[in-house]
């Protein structure tokens, strides 16, 4: 595809760029993987090396009234990712503006391995030891974001990858660095992150670290119980589900460590942020303590 053809595509505004389109004259697009907050996510190949990558882009001219703002947020995400040299976060390869396409873009590494969602579907439930190990690793990655002035806010098991053995960290987040702590409230998620999001996030209110405590607790609940704590495909449905209460993680006769895990997860999932752990660091300390108790039992 020539630059002139790409420019015509940007002006015509197709829903999906066709396979073969070039970004920055270097990354050849394949299929579109998803559309999130007007950001198009494509699998792509770097022309020079043949390496697989992921390209995330926003075309302001075809993204509605907020197109320019969304492009600015994508540029901010690139800046945020540079602050996160953590092995649990997807690596930023390149970013910039593609003039022929009229697109702000990010190029990210193509993560390998099974997703956490695939593991949940295959296994349905994890045992307590596995779940605490998973929660410990997630806490470390999210705490690294908090130390950089960022919040996770939105997380779905579909965007958590479990790399093959021998990697430096047991999991990788495909989505990170999208929210700064001092950002104004953003619209609630409308994708797989909905069942894990804190109620204040679902209402589009101001969020802090305690919203991330909630989403981590929701992932732990899914791992232990086999389903999300509050079912719903939209923010409205998930908020309504909270009124029906929370199914206990364990039946009567749970062991002391299982009962402690139930209390930990319930505290994470409290409606009132003030009733949750005050920070992910505090949550992680409780997880580490519970892992030690489980090892001794």
Question: In a nutshell, what does this entry contain?
Answer:
By secondary structure, the protein is of the alpha+beta class. The protein contains 9 helices and 11 strands.
Protein model, in words:
38% of the residues lie in helices and 18% in strands. By secondary structure, it is α+β, with helices and mostly antiparallel strands. It folds into 2 domains: 3-109, Phosphorylase Kinase, domain 1; 114-296, Transferase(Phosphotransferase), domain 1 (Orthogonal Bundle). The strands form 3 sheets. A 6-stranded antiparallel beta sheet has the order 1-2-3-4-6-5, with helices on both faces. A 3-stranded antiparallel beta sheet has the order 7-9-10. Strand 1 (22-23) and strand 2 form a beta hairpin. Helix 4 runs antiparallel to helix 9 and helix 6 (209-225) packs across helix 8. The protein starts with a helix and ends with a helix.
């Amino acid at each position: 595809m020539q630059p002139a053809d790409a420019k015509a595509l940007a002006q015509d505004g197709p829903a999906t760029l066709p396979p073969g389109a070039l970004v920055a004259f270097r990354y050849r697009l394949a299929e579109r993987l998803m559309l999130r907050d007007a950001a198009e996510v494509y699998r792509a190949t770097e022309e020079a090396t043949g390496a697989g990558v992921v390209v995330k882009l926003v075309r302001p001219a075809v993204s509605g009234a907020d197109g320019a703002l969304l492009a600015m947020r994508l540029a901010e995400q690139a800046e945020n990712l540079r602050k996160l040299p953590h092995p649990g976060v997807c690596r930023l390869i390149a970013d910039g503006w593609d003039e022929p396409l009229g697109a702000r873009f990010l190029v990210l590494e193509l993560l390998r391995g099974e997703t956490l969602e695939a593991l949940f579907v295959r296994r349905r439930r994890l045992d307590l030891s596995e779940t605490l190990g998973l929660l410990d690793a997630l806490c470390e990655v999210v705490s690294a974001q908090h130390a950089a002035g960022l919040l996770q806010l939105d997380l779905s098991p579909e965007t958590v990858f479990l790399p093959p053995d021998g990697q430096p960290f047991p999991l990788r987040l495909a989505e990170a660095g999208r929210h700064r702590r001092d950002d104004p409230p953003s619209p609630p998620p409308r994708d797989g992150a909905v069942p894990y999001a804190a109620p204040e996030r679902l209402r589009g209110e101001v969020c802090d670290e305690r919203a991330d405590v909630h989403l981590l607790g929701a992932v732990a609940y899914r791992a232990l119980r086999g389903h999300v704590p509050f079912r719903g495909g939209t923010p409205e449905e998930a908020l309504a589900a909270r009124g029906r209460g929370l199914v206990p993680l364990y039946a009567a006769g749970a062991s002391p460590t299982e009962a402690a895990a139930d209390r930990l997860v319930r505290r994470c999932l409290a409606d009132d942020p003030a009733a949750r752990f005050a920070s992910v660091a505090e949550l992680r300390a409780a997880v580490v303590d519970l892992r030690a108790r489980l090892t001794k039992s």
